[in-house]
Amino acid sequence: MKKTLAFFTTFLYKDFSKFCNEKLQKIGLSKGLLYFVIYIGRHPKCSPGNLSSELRFDSGHTTRALEKLVQNEFVLREKSESDKRAYILSLTEKGEEALKVIYSLFSQWDEKVFSDIEEDERTQLISLMEKIIQKKGENKWNIQ
Q1: What's the mean pLDDT in 2-12?
Q2: How far does CA 72 lie from the centroid of its chain?
Q3: β strands within 6-83, DSSP E
Q4: Tens digit of pLDDT for each residue in 17-32?
Q5: What domains appear along the chain, each with residue ranges and CATH number?
Q6: What contacts 23, CB < 8 A, 6 or more positions away?
Q7: Do the beta carbons of residue 57 and residue 68 sit within 8 Å?
Q8: Cβ atoms 72, 95 nearer than 8 A
Q9: Which one has a higher pLDDT value, 100 or 132?
Q10: Which Gene3D superfamilies match (predicted)?
Q11: How far is the C-alpha of 133 from the C-alpha of 76, rounded, in Å?
C-alpha cells in the first residue's frame, strides 16, 4: 500500500479514539459526543441547526446527540428570546467541567504521540496540518 495521508490520519484517529474512550466513559460521555461538547463550548448560544451544519451531521443525529447531552446534564437547551420557535444551546457547569477534561485529553494524547519526536518536527507537522485545513476552508473552529 502506498503511504497516504488518509492512512496515517485514520490510524491516528483510531488511536486517539481508543485513548479517549475509557476516560470519557468515566465522566459519562462517549467519543461520539465529544465534538458536540467542544463546539457548544466554543459557540455558546448556538442553535441545533448551526451545530448540525458546522459538524456536518444530519439533523436526526444531532437531535439524538443533544438529547443525550441534555438528559445527562452536559447541555442546557433553552428557547431563544428572539425567536420562541428556536432553541439555543449552552454548556452546563457539568458540561464546562467535561470540556476541561476533553481539552486535557487532547493535550495528553499529543504528549504521548509526540514524546519521541523533536520539537522542530512537531512544529513542522502541526504547521503542515494547519495549512491543509486552511486550504480546505475548514478553520471554522478557530484552532489556536
Answers
A1: 92
A2: 18
A3: 75-79
A4: 999 998 999 999 999 9
A5: 5-135 (1.10.10.10)
A6: 101, 105
A7: no
A8: no
A9: 100
A10: Winged helix-like DNA-binding domain superfamily/Winged helix DNA-binding domain (1.10.10.10)
A11: 31
Interval 66-124: pLDDT, tens: 999 999 999 999 988 888 788 999 999 999 999 999 999 999 999 999 999 999 999 99
Task: Please give the Cα distance from 25 to 34 (Å, whole number).
Answer: 11
Report the C-alpha gap between 101 and 79 in whole angstroms: 28
> Phi-psi category of 49—alpha, beta or left, where left has phi over 0 and alpha has psi -120 to 50?
alpha
Tell me the three cell numbers of residue 142: 478557530
Which grid coordinates belong to 4?
Answer: 497516504
Whether residue 144 is predicted with pLDDT greater than 70 in this model: the reply is no
Q: Is 43 left (phi over 0), alpha (psi -120 to 50) or beta?
A: beta
User: Cell for 21?
Assistant: 474512550
* Per-residue pLDDT at 92: 98
pTM of the model: 0.85
CA angle 53, 59, 139 (to 5 degrees): 20
Contact between residue 90 and residue 45 where contact means Cβ atoms under 8 Å apart:
yes
The SS3 call for residue 40 is helix
Between the alpha carbon of residue 128 and those of residues 47, 90, 94, 121, 123, the distances in Å are 32, 33, 35, 11, 9
Confirm if 89 and 48 have CB atoms less than 8 A apart: yes
